[in-house]
Amino acid sequence: MSLHHAHRFNSDNYSGIHPQVAAAIADANAGHAAGYGDDPWTRHLEAVVADHFGAAAAAFPVLTGTGANVVALGAILPRWGSVVTAASSHLNVDENAAPERLLGVKLLTVPTPDGKLRPADLDVYAGDRGDPHRAQPLAISIAQPTELGTAYSLGELRELCSRAHELGMAVHMDGARLANAAVALGASLRQMTTDAGVDVLSLGATKNGGMVGECVVILHADAGRGTEFVRKYTGQLASKMRFVSAQLVALFGTELWRSNAANANARAAQLRRGIERVIDAHPDAGIRLTQRSDTNAVFVVLPARIREPLRARFGFYDWDARGGEVRLMCSFDTSEQIVDEFTAALAAAAGD
Question: Residue 4's pLDDT is what?
């Protein structure tokens, strides 16, 4: 029996490994090499990271996205620090309180309609500074793009980072899908991070053609202290790190990161256009788009009579089960054909 399954829209984590990344892993699997990052692949990665983010940027490969966020926050926060983040952020909703459990830091959440923090949102907690009865707001964590698929503009990033620094807060960026945001904005990785004022970055690979592994990037010398120790005590120091680094080099040492993200974004745009055509043709079917599709996600309300047959065939997750809102994610390997098949099935269901 074949273990291969049809394309699913549940998550870009469902996709396989890009062939060039798989080849890079195979190439790294030749002979012996020093462990824990003292290897040629990790040294190459350090040069790649410096090329993208600036000469002062330092790379710390880790195993998971949650691990990257924990290590990054641990590098910029004392035990009495807290993190201001959007209530809908992955950090708050989908990481099983990892920052609280592993670092002992508190998350201070702000409700946002589109997943994006605004400078005024930071003022909600600014008055707590210096009060020993309150967790100290010493960092913010933003995602680019957000958990809702929306992307900060370069101007928004600069303004937000500037306000955070004025308030004495460091800036962490969850860049699990940073490549998708870069393609959407037509921007470089550096423009969205170092140049905008971000202090520490969780750079994603798994959602964009990698197998396993992400990278914490300390963007300037004053941002992260003791990152190597935080990485070890949080269980994120890989012994055979060359296999993590080889993947990151395959993606970011070439333009593969960009082409993979470009396909995912393009297929999401195609999917959204198809859903819009169905809505226009069947305005009373109860189908409604709920968020902008800046990157590779489409959020849409589907009535149960339409939703469940489609879910069985194509796969997707509920976002708001009570309201019927679902999330459709496109990946580096999503094809035009599968998007067309989905929208044709949606149209047929809407017309029944």
Answer: 59
At 3 the pLDDT is 57
Tens digits of per-residue pLDDT, 141-172?
A: 999 999 999 999 999 999 999 999 999 999 99
Domain ranges of the chain: 17-254, 257-351
The three-class DSSP label of residue 6 is: coil
Q: Quick: pLDDT tens for 281-329.
A: 999 999 999 999 999 999 999 999 999 999 999 999 999 999 999 999 9
DSSP 159-180: HHHHHHHHTT-EEEEEETTHHH
d(CA 217, CA 91): 17
Comparing C-alpha atoms, which of 240, 260, 181 is closest to residue 16? Answer: 260
Angle at the Cα of 168 from the Cα atoms of 164 and 170, rounded to 5 degrees: 60
- For domain 17-254, give its CATH number from 3.40.140.10, 3.40.640.10, 1.10.540.10, 3.40.50.300: 3.40.640.10
Top CATH class of 257-351 equals: alpha beta
Q: CA gyration radius for the chain? A: 21
Of the candidates 304, 298, 320, 259, which has an alpha carbon nearest to the alpha carbon of residue 9? 298
Contact 145, 177 (CB under 8 A): yes
Tokens of 126: 């600014």
Residue appearing with tokens 């009579």: 305
Check the CA dihedral 172-177-181-182 and report its sign.
Answer: positive
Share of the chain above pLDDT 90, in %: 97
CA angle 123, 126, 132 (to 5 degrees): 155
